[in-house]
Known about the structure:
Chain A has 290 residues and is mainly alpha-helical. Helices cover 76% and strands 0% of the residues of chain A.
Amino acid sequence: xxxxxxxxxGTRNWRIRWRSxxxxxxxxxxxxxxxxxxxxxxxxxxKPANLIFSDLSLWPAKFRLQNYVDGxxxxxxxFSAFFLNSFIIAGLAVVGNVLACSMVAYxxxxxxxxxxxxxxxxxxxxxxxxxxxTLIPQYALFYNLGWVNTFxxxxxPKFLAVDAFFIFLMIQxxxxxxxxxxxxxxxxxxxxxxxxxSVILPLLTPALVTTAVFSFIWTYEDFLSPLVYLTxxxxxTVPQGLSLLMSSKGASSWGPLLAMSLLSLVPLFVVFFIxxxxxxxxxxxxxxxx
Amino acid sequence: xxxxxxxxxxxxxxxxxxxxxxxxxxxxINARQNGAxxxxxxxxxxxxxxxxxxxxxxxxxxSLTRYDMFTPPQxxxxxxxxxxxxxxxxxxxxxxxxxxxxxxSVPLKLAFALGVAMLLNRGLKGLGFYRSIYYLxxxxxxxxxxxxxxxxxxxxxxxxxxxxxKFGIDGPSWITSTDYALYTLVALAVWQFGSPMVIFxxxxxxxxxxxxxxxxxxxxxxxxxxxSVTLPLLTPIIFFNFVMQIIGAFQAFTPAYIISNGKGGPADATLFYxxxxxxxxxxxxxxxxxxxxxxxxxxxxxLATVLSFQSARYWVHYGDxx
Lengths: 290, 322
């Protein structure tokens, strides 16, 4: 550096700092715009109906829980029933996906068998297959089994590893586990089942957690399958309950509807804040390795 | 399978006793491993046969019948397909709505995702915080609750119009207007740019700093670096995001259902393909017709995917080519 460039060095530093302030400013503004609808939802759920649309401020003048009381019992069934149904279905879906997908992933990643490449190709194709391709015959099948209007059509497919995306996620993860561990276990006399249970599963925990979290979120949010399979109100899930509340109450009482909407998002917020790193890594990994 | 065959073939030509014993061992292991492997695969194989492959074939058969679930299907040949393309104006409306939605929402979503990812990828303080905030909507976006919220945000007396009113603009009733209803759904999709953004961020982190340094030495400015370094090296990830988003966008259902009360209104302005399919199958019990619609949807998505992969060779750069 020559002496002549000394002053420009100073301006440059200043310019970099200024630029970083601008970038942070834009990002904070953007973040605010992104979550503004959610903040609005939260604040509206606490306002009386006549103020929801006239009062723009995010901080309610008075906190009123009446909307929650009205919403909870607003539909023909209380929301406790809908939440219970949703948690039962989502919980069993998590168990099904974690067990079934890890078994299949272990076979693809570690065992040799005939038609392995073909089956792997078929498995990858099913990831891209739209749900609607199988919806109607599946419905006919479950109808003839007498499963319509039970939780079974929403749960049994998870125990049959139908969500192949998770199989793929786990295969990628198992490939990163050193094979020497399997070999050492084999020398100690362990068979494939023991290796799966005692070597692979414990080390697969991060991928299992990712699978569990996404299974929970996707099943909990799912609207189409419950809409198709659950017709009696006492089996409704939370999204169906919201839809019911929306159509039964009409536009007159938005307060309770918004209150229940926010409440239905709470389990997702909780899961997100506990597992956000795992979720983001899971998303990133699916893109990078895929 | 092909490896097993070629292994066997190479062993056949090798006549040494060592190879023969190895072969015997291989076969023994294979028999035992096959048994174990298929036990592990059994849940998935049952699912594949009963819930995927079987239903796909059944769906094709049903698409050639008149079927209402309660009486046996009646063979009617290709009538469903003929009706779909020759007579059903609502079907064309559903196609128009869905294609508009896909072709607007996917590029916009990816543009936002890439733009914000570029802004975030500067070693900023608080990256984790921003990333979480921007990612959150894409996690919640598929839910009924968010669709209800969106309906309110764009209602005639909703916040968008309240804000516009501050600027002296009297906004329309977005949700109930045939001109705007679809665009509120596009906006809802774009709002969920977080998950492709996270994938872009991970991809940007993998571009070595040395390449940027070298470009800078060659006198490249920020725009030049973006066009000549970032974009080409990111094409595999742009491609991945593009294909996944296209496949997802064709299947969008919940927001359209909630915003239009399950009817695809106003005046079919938000009659998504999946919504019309649902209506035909589970409201009108035209299961045969709906199966034909499902098959065309699969064909459209398949074609879009194949075309993407075909085009990829012209614009996607994979690292190992360099």
